[in-house]
Design brief:
Blueprint lengths: L6 E5 L4 H12 L3 E5 L14 E3 L6 H8 L4 E4 L12 H18 L3 E5 L11 H14 L4 E7 L1 E3 L5 H11 L2 E5 L5 E2 L1 E3 H13 L4 E5 L5 E2 H12 L4 E5 L1 H15 L6 H8 L15 H7 L11 H5 L2
Parallel strand pairs: 1-2, 1-4, 2-3, 4-5, 5-6, 6-11, 7-10, 8-13
Antiparallel strand pairs: 9-12
Helix pairs in contact: 1-6, 2-3, 3-4, 5-7
Length: 306
């Protein structure tokens, strides 16, 4: 990796994906600055980084916060639309960030996207991700786009909260037949792929996917085995599954699973069409973290909106 300045910037170094990238950079003895509005989340005490606000409304300050950086690793995005904030705003914010990186003289932007984005997708999340990729390519700066599938690891929300429900409920609902596939990838693998992409002389687009493709029902079964708790599984129509998720959301005061997310899952958008670059297996991680996962509920709204 270039040692021109030894400084890299990570948006959200204390967030889920960002923390894996930050730790990878620390292992490479890089200096880190993070742009974030959510500093010092629990579980990130080991990350040493200079902190500056992620400020889209003050472009001059944003440019200054990026000045002197070799690489910008961007993990900024939103999981769902809330209130007046929509995916179009996230795309606009991304465009501002990429332009600021160009003007600050950043050598390369490594952007964390998602597997199978498409500008014409009927799912706003995947369409928005594709438009953000276009915004980066149009800046003229050197870029790398990394497209993860379902990321797992410490700090995960989806797998942790499935485990949390399995530990507490007498029945567990599986949308449809559970026969749709996904391809989990470890956060550490995403970070290794991202730092590899930063080293490439050319601009690259690459998937970040794990070694195993599993059915959703198989994944839930693996989580149940890990936590030694196996409630009765019931199979629900997607519509009823979303209704059940809303009821659980009221119970925990959070957004647990929404209809577009379920649609993307059932359409197998979290499966890569490329050869897998990740090497770490979900089963191994579940068994080695069985005492931890699902002990506490992980709230999306608490992390990003409150």
């Amino acid at each position: 990796m270039s040692q021109a300045t030894g400084l890299d910037v990570v948006t959200g170094a204390f967030s889920f994906t960002g923390r894996f990238i930050a730790r990878r950079l620390m292992a490479q003895e890089r200096r880190i600055k993070t742009l974030t509005n959510h500093p010092r989340r629990p579980g990130t005490e080991d990350i040493t980084a200079e902190v500056a606000p992620l400020q889209f409304t003050d472009r001059e300050a944003l440019v200054e916060s990026l000045r002197g950086a070799d690489v910008l690793y961007n993990t900024y995005w939103v999981r769902f639309q809330r209130g007046r904030f929509h995916f179009g705003q996230a795309v606009a914010n991304s465009r501002i960030l990429f332009g600021a990186a160009r003007d600050a003289g950043v050598r390369k932007v490594v952007h964390i996207s998602v597997s199978n984005p498409a500008e014409d997708s009927h799912l706003d999340y995947y369409a928005g991700k594709a438009w953000a990729e276009r915004a980066l390519r149009e800046t003229g700066i050197s870029w790398a786009i990394v497209r993860p599938t379902l990321v797992f690891g410490q700090g995960d929300i989806l797998i942790n909260n499935i485990a949390w429900l399995l530990r507490r409920l007498p029945i567990f609902g599986i949308p449809g037949k559970g026969d749709y596939r996904l391809q989990p990838v470890a956060g550490e693998d995403v970070a290794e792929i991202a730092t590899w992409a930063a080293e490439q002389a050319d601009s690259v687009t690459v998937d970040a996917a794990g070694p195993d493709i599993v059915y959703y029902s198989e994944m839930v079964e693996s989580i149940a085995i890990a936590v030694s708790r196996h409630p009765r599984f019931i199979y629900m129509s997607p519509r009823n599954a979303v209704r059940a998720a809303r009821l659980i959301g009221r119970w925990v005061n959070d957004v647990t699973l929404n209809e577009p997310e379920l649609t993307g899952l059932m359409e197998e958008l979290l499966v890569s069409r490329e050869r897998p670059r990740g090497t770490r297996r979900l089963d191994n991680w579940l068994l080695s973290n069985a005492d931890i996962i699902g002990r506490k509920y992980a709230s999306e709204l608490e992390r990003h909106w409150r």
